[in-house]
Write a structure and sequence with these properties.
CATH superfamily of the largest domain: H-NOX domain
Structural class: alpha+beta
Order of helices and strands: HHHHHHHEEHEE
CATH topology of the largest domain: H-NOX domain
Distance between the termini: 34 Å
CATH class of the largest domain: Alpha Beta
Number of domains: 2
Shape: globular
Strand order of the largest sheet: 1-2-4-3
Largest sheet: 4 strands, antiparallel
Helix content: 40-55%
Number of helices: 8
Number of strands: 4
CATH architecture of the largest domain: Alpha-Beta Complex
């Protein structure tokens, strides 16, 4: 997993819960990196999972809710760092439908060894989209949060239904209907 995911996560934890919480979750985790991350480094997903589990245990906020909050934070990073990418699109459905064939292609240019989830578009209309999310890392709520922020970015809204295809969350169907 790319280091930017870790550095931004720890920034969010500091902003929302304080520097002491950052130190606490790092100390409580058994991290090969010892909690030292660079945005361009590559780290094991197990480290992110430990940080999330410890943050959840210390705050009584579910991991899914933490991932939703983190996605909202991370979308602002995308807005600030890659405004040209977002400006390519005029509609949230178009943007979400292009995750696999455009956005992930651009991400791989910056982070060639990034392990990204797969999004397969099953059905698309002007106002709806059905996609399948597949990843060995069950971070579908991070994806859901990014989708919510995508609609907000375009001053729009949608009903997004998440259906687990696999109980462990490694395969999920998103059914999106623009309001």
């Amino acid at each position: 997993m790319k280091g930017i995911i870790f550095t931004e996560f720890l920034d969010l934890v500091e902003d929302k819960f304080g520097l002491e919480m950052v130190d606490k979750i790092i100390t409580q985790s058994e991290l090969e990196s010892e909690g030292v991350y660079t945005s361009i480094g590559t780290y094991r997903f197990s480290e992110m999972l430990q940080l999330l589990q410890n943050l959840s245990a210390n705050t009584d906020v579910s991991i899914d809710d933490l991932l939703l909050t983190y996605a909202e934070h991370f979308f602002s990073v995308i807005e600030d760092s890659y405004p040209g990418l977002l400006a390519t699109y005029k509609d949230p459905i178009e943007m979400l439908a292009s995750i696999e064939n455009h956005i992930h292609v651009e991400v791989r240019k910056i982070y060639p060894d990034a392990e990204l989830p797969t999004f397969v578009v099953e059905e698309k209309t002007a106002n709806s989209l059905t996609m399948i999310y597949k990843s060995s890392r069950a971070m579908h709520h991070f994806g859901l949060g990014l989708m919510n922020k995508t609609f907000e970015h375009f001053n729009s809204s949608a009903e997004i239904i998440l259906e687990k295809i696999k109980e462990d969350g490694t395969e999920v169907k998103f059914i999106i209907n623009k309001n």
